[in-house]
Amino acid sequence: MVDPDYATRAKNLLKAEMTRKGVTVKELAGMLGENERGLANKISRGTFTAAFMLQCLKVIGSRSLHLD
Predict the structure, then answer these.
(1) DSSP labels for 31-64?
(2) What are 21-54's pLDDT values in tens digits?
(3) Contact 14, 53 (CB under 8 A)
(4) Considering the domain boundaries, does residue 16 fall inside one?
(5) What is the pLDDT of residue 3?
(6) 64 falls within a domain
(7) Is 31 within a domain?
């Protein structure tokens, strides 16, 4: 099971990067070929895989991630 603190951090990091890049959930869903509602739920839970997060960061154009 994923530690809730890390799930929250992962969710917040991804959402912050999306905001920084000006990408909405709807736009990200289109880039990934996923359902918007399903993607929104996955992000809000924060229990996605590292591979999924890397895929999201790549398609939105993030080249680095600050963990602080």
Answers:
(1) HHT--HHHHHHHHHHT---HHHHHHHHHHHT---
(2) 999 999 999 999 999 999 999 999 998 999 999 9
(3) yes
(4) yes
(5) 79
(6) no
(7) yes
